[in-house]
Amino acid sequence: MDNQIKKIGILTSGGDAPGMNASIRSIVRTAIKNNIEVIGFMRGYEGLINGDYINLDAKSVSDIMQRGGTILLSARCKEMMTDEGKQKAANVCKELNIDALIVIGGDGSLTGALHLSKLGVKVMGIPGTIDLDLACSEYTVGFDTAVNTAMEAINKVRDTSSSHERCCIIEVMGRNAGYIALWCGLVNGAEEVLIPERPNVTEDEIIELVKNNKNNGKVSNVIVLAEGFTAVEPHDLAKKIEKATNIETRATVLGHLQRGGSPTAVDRMHASIMGYRAVEQLLKGNINRIIILKNGKYDDVDLEEGLKATRVYDDSLYQLVKTFA
Ligand code: F6P
Hints:
By secondary structure, this protein is an alpha/beta fold. It has helices spanning 20-33, 45-50, 83-95, 107-118, 143-163, 179-187, 203-215, 234-245, 265-283, 303-308, 316-324, and strands spanning 7-12, 37-41, 53-55, 100-105, 123-127, 167-172, 192-194, 221-226, 249-253, 289-294, 297-302.
């Protein structure tokens, strides 16, 4: 690699995601091998704005690959949404002689990076969110671990539900996207999946489904609900299903347990390679890009273009869930 870059800053921002540490480690180790100094800003943009950082040497990232969360901590920084905050962040980059800033995070975090790029900061983005809701990339750091965690949890709820011949509603994360729910729907063999991409399903239709299943001799139902499907509230829906069908129904909200835990091999692998490629691109003189996975291959896309991308919802996974139900 050619070496024009002397100092890199890293931050993790927004909802943390398992695998962020693997990216941090690979960035630091790749940078150091190329004689680049690395600093890590604490609590995402909050640390950048306040100049709160730590020096990252090779040893500082030992023993972190297997840990969930992020050693740099994360936050949702309101100040970064103001013009003043953005300018402060850009000034800190300048004052600290940072040649490039690598941001690991989701849509909001990479939008922050885009703003900084407009203020002259050289940036590089790595998609990091359990929601998989960055349309420009087929993969985001943390999704695989979150799905596996949710799958394991749903297995357990299913065991007790089956023993009691109950219906269970399990809410998984996914603010605007139903990917965790859809994947779990398929790999947990759910009877129904409720996702924001299919907003028009009514309570009556869900109750009808459970009734029909009962008439066909099936009382144990698994309904996976993405948190972004706002047409129903899980505990409320459970009561309504129970009342209408006479099948005991319980709701479980998995919540933040899906965001923690040791990353899977898939997340460690992609996160590490994306970190490496982020540094590699900077060394090649490429800036303001997002490292992505496209058609199964690593690639990178212009930051602004990548953030503009929209994904057309493909119903085929949902249809498979229904075929197998
Ligand atoms: O990072 C994504 C996500 O986990 C969403 O699935 C969820 O809606 C949101 O973050 C929760 O954010 P917070 O931890 O700030 O409550």
